[in-house]
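Predict the 3D structure for this chain.
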Amino acid sequence: MTNLEYLSQYLEYIKFEKRLAQLTVNNYQRDIKELLKKINKDLSLFQHEDIRGAVAQMHAQGLSGTSISRRLSAWRGFFEFLNSRYAFKQNPVISIKAPKDSKKLPQTLTVDQTIKLVDIKDKTFLGKRDHAILELFYSSGLRLSELTNLKIEDISFSEANVRVTGKGNKSRIVPIGKNALHAMHEWLKMRQTIAKLDSKNNGIFLNKQGNPISARAIQYRLKFWAIKQGIPENIHPHLLRHSFASHVLQSSQDLRAVQELLGHSNISTTQIYTHLDFQHLAKIYDKSHPRAKKK
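Done. Predicted structure below.
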């Protein structure tokens, strides 16, 4: 039998005996035909090295690990059928694994974009509150939950720091920059003008009714200011945290310090920012090195 005849028998098997959906059958057919095209020889002669070569080729073409894994699954099932139905001696796909997908690097803003975003000049109630929120996000690299849970007593203007409670109910003290301190000072003065302010309510960020501002509301306000300030990126609270970490690492090269500032229990979580830093350095290299410049 030819390779295509074997394939035809397998497709009938999975359709009528395994009762797979027609769409699934079509996907298997496409994936196996792709394999037969990549390795142009009799199926009985296929070796592990042939499959590894096909995987390497797909990986080089930019296919994700998930896509490659799906193809391997289709090929593996095909050879299992050939083993059982036609007494093929081996399954060359056994023990072949798809390469792992590389971790997606977090998106960050440039320094100029970040400064443009947080530099809010609006003197209204919402303007001063949102200015303090954005400045604090970027100044101290806070998580959204950490910011929404802040109390007035957590801020120390004399020490220029803020105490936050992060994941696992762990507390840490993080410095606050002078611009963020000024924005916080201005906001706390505005906060006192809330008509229905309960003296027992010590939450820092409130709405006009004196209620704590929700995480969703903060997300909405960030998107509002991104549009108003002319920032084309998809702005969300964690983007400012990512930008904080990346910018501090670029300047200091101190991974341990960034780990402490972010409140990561494991430094491997922080190490992703070293890749961002390398990307930044690579861009500088491409622009500045005489042997890297494109003519």
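The first helix runs from residue 3 to 17.
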